[in-house]
Amino acid sequence: MKSGVVLIASMSTAYYNSAVRCAVSIKDYSPKTSITLFTHQEFMKERDMKYFDHISYDIPYHRRAKMKGMYMSPYDITAYIDADMEVMSSEFNTIFDYFEDNEIMLTNIREHVSKEVFIDKNKTQKMQYHGGFMLYKKNENTMKLLKDWYEEFLIQDKSEWNYPEYFPSMKRWDQFTLWRLLKESEYKYKIGIMPDDYRWNYIWLYDIKGADGDKSPIIYHHTIPDRIVHAGHIKHKS
After folding, report:
1. Which residues are CB-neighbours of 101 under 8 A, at least 6 positions away?
2. CA separation for the pair 42, 33 (Å, rounded)
C-alpha cells in the first residue's frame, strides 16, 4: 500500500514557507517518505519543487482548505501534519507502524497549551482530538469523515451559531467540527491515539513541569503568530 505525508499551504505565504521547511525536515530524517503538497500556483517556487514528490494546485482559497486536501490525498495511508510543524527525530520513520486495527490515529489536545479548555457553558465537555495531526487509511468510512468535516465546517463558519449548549467561540474552530462529528455521528470510526502522542504533535507555549512526559519531540508544532499569517495573506482571493 502507498503511504505518504500530505502538507497543505493555502491563503498565506507563511504557510507555504513553513510547508517547505517541514518537507526539508522530513527528507532530512526520512528521505524515502513521499510528500504531497497542496498549495496555490502563485506560491510555488521552482527551487522548492525538489522537496515534494507530488504537487497539486487543486485546492480552494480558504483558511481551512486542509480538509479538502486531506480528502484528495493520493495515498492509501496518509499522514497529515500541519504545515507549521518540523520533524526532529529519526523516529518519524515509524509513523505508520501504530495503526493495528484502527482506521485513524490522532493526538490529544494538551490543556496547558489550549486557549479554551471547556467548550460548553456547564464546563463538563472538552474537545479531545487535535486537528493538526491525523493518520488515516483511505476507505469509505474515512473519506466520508473528511468530506463531512470540510462541508460541515463551511456551514458552521458561515451560518448562525446553531449549538447553544457550546460556547460561540467554538464557531471558528475546525477542531470543534471534528469533535462533534466523531461524537455525534452515526458512523463508527476505529480511532487510536499515537503512543507518547505529545511527541508527535509537540506544542510548547508554557513551561509547566509534568504537563507531559520528558521525552524529546518527534514532530515540533511551532504555531505561526497571527500577525505573520495575516501579513502573507492573498488579498485578491475570497
Report:
1. 190
2. 26
The three three-digit cell numbers of residue 196, written as one number: 507518547
Is the Cβ–Cβ distance between 69 and 38 less than 8 Å?
Answer: yes
Is 41 part of a structural domain of the chain? yes
Residue matched to cell numbers 447553544: 164
In this structure, is residue 46 part of a structural domain? yes
Task: Please give the helix or strand (H or E) that residue 237 lies within, else none.
Answer: none
How far, in Å, CA of 106 to CA of 127, rounded?
Answer: 13
Q: How many CB atoms lie within 10 A of CB 185?
A: 12
Nearest alpha-carbon partner for 77 in 101, 103, 51: 103
Residue 151 belongs to a domain: no
Region of 147 on the Ramachandran plot (φ > 0 left; ψ -120 to 50 alpha; else beta): alpha
pLDDT digits (tens, 9 = 90+) for 4-55: 999 999 988 989 999 999 999 999 999 999 999 999 999 999 999 999 999 9
Decide: helix, strand or coil at residue 88. Answer: coil
